[in-house]
Amino acid sequence: MYTVKTFKEEITLDAEKTLKDLPLIEIIKRKLSFMQAQHSKYFDNTGELQAYNDMIQDVMNMTEDKFVRKYLKIVRDIEQKFNRNEITSQEEDHKLGGYSNAVVNVLLLIDPLYEEKLVFRAYCSDELIDRLKE
Predict the structure, then answer these.
(1) Of 7, 32, 73, 134, which sits most exposed with the smallest number of CB within 10 A?
(2) Tens of pLDDT along 74-126?
């Protein structure tokens, strides 16, 4: 074990652990820790903090398929809100944008192909996507 200093915190790393032993939940926790360290009254990242907290809970209990479906739908719903101009305040804009960005970051870690699905899902219904899979 050894400690690495970052800009605002210290991270303890295990020198004996290979990357194959680094689970997704640990990566999400590190992202959450980083965002918490960056949070201030000048930088509103409450959406990202909420997303990472939500995903940590779901990673513990969901299959990959359920997790991905849930968060692809959330990103699509947020995108549709933006497209329909349903965002009523700058605070909501920052929160939803941050939430969406955090989800996208994690989904791309799971599989980079989700980037294409995210673009496709922003404009299609779940029913159409399910029919296309058949």
Answers:
(1) 134
(2) 998 998 898 889 989 988 999 999 999 999 999 998 988 877 766 655 555 55
Cβ–Cβ contacts within 10 Å for residue 69, how many?
Answer: 14
52, 102 Cβ separation under 8 angstroms:
yes
pLDDT in tens, 16-72: 777 777 788 888 888 888 888 777 656 678 899 999 999 999 999 999 999 999 999
Residue pair 122/76 in contact (Cβ under 8 Å)? The answer is: yes
SS3 call for 90: helix
pTM for this prediction = 0.74
CA separation for the pair 52, 44 (Å, rounded): 15
Three-point CA angle 63, 65, 66, nearest 5°: 70
Distance CA 131, CA 85 (A): 28
d(CA 21, CA 44): 33
